[in-house]
Please model this.
Amino acid sequence: MPDLVVPSTRVEVRVAAPDEIGAVARIHFDSLPHDFLPSLGLDFLERVHYPAAFSSAFGANLVAVSAACPVGFVTIAHDAGRFSRDVIRRRMWDIGRYVARAAWRNPRHLRLSAEVVWSIISGRPDPVRGEIFLIAVRQPWRGKGVGQALVRASLAYLAEHQVPLCRTKTLAANTGAIAMYQRLGWSVRDRFALIGREYVTIVSPAIDPVDRN
Ligand SMILES: CC(C)(COP(=O)(O)OP(=O)(O)OC[C@H]1O[C@@H](n2cnc3c(N)ncnc32)[C@H](O)[C@@H]1OP(=O)(O)O)[C@@H](O)C(=O)NCCC(=O)NCCS
Model:
């Protein structure tokens, strides 16, 4: 995949190296502290979630780097069902341990976790195979085009894998993220409720496949 450059901020987007797992986990943890996965702890993201996400053959983690330091990242899957099996379904035992720990601190966590896990297990396969699982940019770097560069790089990755569409889910209240996707031509496909909050699914415009000949 070609590297992309945001000229005004000298940020390069490339595939993340395994030794960048800690930096990626930290950006995720700091950017979305009230989301389910960060609520299991930075330790969970560093030791369970991202090692699994980095090792899956069905997705990739791309970082936006400035002066050798990751300032944002995206987790993109070209086969979201198989990726989520690698990252979530096969890690249920580890997830369960961290859920138990979080529930010890706050018993309400048990019900929230049960709802999230059930939604993953019982969810019907989505016809849109490509999925941005997570995108985040460090606070000082926001509003400079880094997020859009990461989305474009994700679509380039999907084009190479001959995947014609991409989806992502975010809180309906996350108007900044939704505006960024809409600016890139994405549109809201549906709304759904989970753990008492409203979410939207946003879908990309058609992605032209890369001609391999
Ligand atoms: C969403 C996020 C990745 C955007 O990254 P970014 O680098 O700031 O985005 P860009 O600079 O590339 O794009 C900015 C565009 O997005 C939209 N946008 C982003 N944040 C916005 C906000 N707070 N309010 C309104 N519009 C916003 C605007 O259309 C803006 O374009 P404009 O400034 O030319 O009008 C970043 O805000 C972030 O990390 N948020 C926390 C994590 C998150 O919510 N992730 C999404 C769910 S997984």
Q: What stands out?
A: The chain has eight helices and eight strands. The two ends are 16 Å apart (CA to CA). Residues 31-32, 134-137, 142-148, 170, 174, 176-177, 179-180, 183 surround coenzyme A (CB under 6 Å).
